[in-house]
Amino acid sequence: MRTPFVGGNWKMNTDRASGVALARAVAEAAAACTGVEVAVFPPFPYLGAIADALHGSRITLGAQDLYYETSGAFTGEVSAAMLLDCGASAVLTGHSERRHVIGESDDLVNRKTRAALDADLTCVLCIGETLDQRERGETHAVNERQLRAALAGVRPERTQRLVIAYEPVWAIGTGRNATPADAQDAHARVRAVLASIFSSDVAASVRIIYGGSLKPDNAEALLARPDVDGGLVGGASLSATDFCTIVRAAEARVARPIA
Ligand code: 13P
Q1: Among 73, 165, 63, which residue's Cα sits nearest to residue 115?
Q2: Which of 1, 33, 110, 161 has minimal CB crowding within 10 Å?
Q3: Residue tagged active-site, from 37, 104, 129, 167
Q4: Mean pLDDT computed over every residue of the chain
């Protein structure tokens, strides 16, 4: 049985005061949702303040990025050890905005993913196709290429802290979500690729979550699909009420048998 994972990716939003208030509100509203792992990913500068705000709660604190080196002359970068030192225990890698806006390569995503897992951070590795790629029928090929590249050199025992987020680029911030059937199809294929890279046991245990315009009104249908093990939420995670409605939809899934 996979414990659902719901993460709030705040992106470059909030300030210190509103971030702390949002974290406190999420901790309170999600306190009863014990069947779901709930995480928030605030901007770097607020990690310390939000770690304090979440102290004693069951919310996982995550960062939106890391660098793969451990220390040294890498101006502007942040290591896995620094994240742990700030109280974070999770991190995103391969987010589409880092791939397509900042220009991160598959190789860089691989180095970051390995560094995160080697440091025992929960690593939410994001993959997904652009609209052009989708229209050319390349969704599954793109997901497979990104997965194989990002996971090259990852030892099977390191996958215990691996979460995959399928986030079709055309669905992010657009209000256009994948249909539950499309998400299920993509996730099932991602799981088959994990089985081929690692083993069927690893594939069965890794959580594969959906991201892209996940909202209170579409969460229940998306999160009910057997291979959709939770969500990575952008815009709706800036409202504790909306975010926690999605967390509750993930928890409702726990009550249902997983096919
Ligand atoms: P939206 O929920 O705003 O579409 O963002 C999704 C996302 O990128 C989460 O990482």
Answers
A1: 63
A2: 1
A3: 167
A4: 96
Phi and psi angles of residue 226, each rounded to the nearest 5 degrees, phi first: -60, -30
Q: Is residue 192 part of a domain?
A: yes
Average pLDDT over residues 165-181: 95
144 among known catalytic residues: no
Instruction: Give dist(CA 26, CA 243) in Å, integer.
Output: 8
Does residue 259 surpass a pLDDT of 50? no
According to DSSP, the β-strands at 5-9 and 90-93 are unpaired
Reported residue count of the chain is: 259
Q: Kindly report the CATH number assigned to the domain that includes residue 112.
A: 3.20.20.70
Q: What burial class does residue 243 get, using C-beta atoms within 10 Å of its C-beta: 0-12 exposed, 13-18 middle, 19+ buried?
A: buried
Which pTM value belongs to this model? 0.97
Q: Is residue 40 part of a domain?
A: yes
Number of domains in the chain: 1
Our mutation pick for probing the ligand 1 site, out of 13, 124, 166, 213, counting the most ligand atoms within 8 A of Cβ, is 213
Q: Which residues line ligand 1 (CB under 6 A)?
A: 9, 95, 167, 172-173, 211-214, 232-236
Q: What integer pLDDT is reported at residue 253 of this predicted model?
A: 82
Query: What residue numbers bound the domain in which 32 lies?
Result: 5-210
Q: How many A from CA of 235 to the centre of ligand 1? A: 6
For ligand 1, atom 5, name the residue with the nearest CA.
234
Contact 229, 222 (CB under 8 A): no
The answer on pLDDT for 168 being more than 80 is: yes
* 215 within some domain: no
95 is catalytic: yes
